[in-house]
Amino acid sequence: MTWQTQMSNRLVQHEYRHLARDVVELGVPPGGKVLDVGTGPGFVAIEIARLLKGNGCQVVRLDLSGAMLAVAAENAGQVGK
Predict the structure, then answer these.
(1) Is residue 31 left, alpha or beta, with left meaning phi > 0 and alpha meaning psi from -120 to 50?
(2) Which pLDDT does position 72 carry in this prediction?
(3) CATH number, span 3-79
(4) How far apart are CA 27 and CA 47, in angstroms?
(5) Which residues have CB under 8 Å from 64's CB, separation 6+?
(6) What is the maximum alpha-carbon separation in the chain?
(7) Which of 13, 17, 27, 33 is deepest in the core (most CB within 10 A)?
(8) d(CA 74, CA 80)
């Protein structure tokens, strides 16, 4: 992986984390649900779930691509979500 790709990945990850924090700050009640439409690889949903851990909330991923849902499930499995 080139250094440009590594920097790009870090910037995108930063944006995913920022977006997830924004969603959580909107206020998710205990036991609530968050729907991530167009989840892609699931990174935003995974970060939201991490931030809401222990709140009894559920994060649901939705994508038109079954292949992307499979990638999202694999990514979530790697972090235990």
Answers:
(1) left
(2) 93
(3) 3.40.50.150
(4) 15
(5) 38
(6) 42
(7) 17
(8) 10
